[in-house]
Amino acid sequence: MQQTKGQQGFSLVELLIVVAIIGIIAAIAIPNLLASRRAANEGSAISSLRTLVSSEGTYSSTTGNGNFGTLIQMRDAQLIDPHLAGGSKSGYTFDVTPVAAVVNANGATTQLPFFHATGNPLEGDAGPTQTGTRRFGTLESGVIYSNQTGNNETPMTRAELAPAGGGAPAFTVIGN
Fold first, then answer.
1. What whole-number distance in Å separates Cα of residue 50 and Cα of residue 77?
2. Which tens digit of pLDDT belongs to each residue from 123-159?
3. Which residue of 67, 80, 114, 129 shows the fewest CB atoms closer than 10 Å?
């Protein structure tokens, strides 16, 4: 049997240094990865709200006979995809609240139809499972508002998006 003088392989110190370097890289990269995922979820939520606004316009002028529809009604009219119609997509939950026109006994419209749509993070609390940091809402005007304060899991109400007396909502305008 023959013995070799030089041993092949890595020493324990070399292995520990490599593990430490990998740990440092992971500590830097993982928070950035999670922040990128949250930003992508928020971008998808804004896009989904824009889809809902345009789908509501189409639904109102075709199938809805002037009224707006729910997620299920718009899905049945093939205006939105089944994932969005299910109320959950890309880390956000979505809801649409339509209100039909009110017509009096004389046949005159006393209230025009309206709706508001909201998008809220599935996991709004801070931490690695957080799917978004902002909640979103829109009205039939198509302007999208965001809010980063308060409970992100509580949907925006129509009263928050369209304050009484015509005041401006206390939210950031994303655009339309």
1. 17
2. 766 777 788 888 899 998 899 988 875 566 677 777 7
3. 129
- Other C-beta atoms closer than 10 Å to the C-beta of 135 total 27
> Taking the CB of residue 121, how many other CB atoms lie within 10 A of it?
22
Amino acid sitting at position 94: F
Chain-centre distance for alpha carbon 84: 10
Q: Which two tokens stand for residue 15?
A: 């292995």
Largest CA distance in the chain: 110
Q: Which long-range contacts (CB under 8 A, 24 or more apart) does 166-173 make?
A: 169/145, 171/137, 171/145, 171/146, 171/147, 172/145, 172/146, 172/147, 172/148, 173/143, 173/144, 173/145
Radius of gyration of the chain (CA): 25
- List Cα–Cα distances, 87 to 13, 40, 83, 122, 147, in angstroms: 53, 18, 7, 11, 20
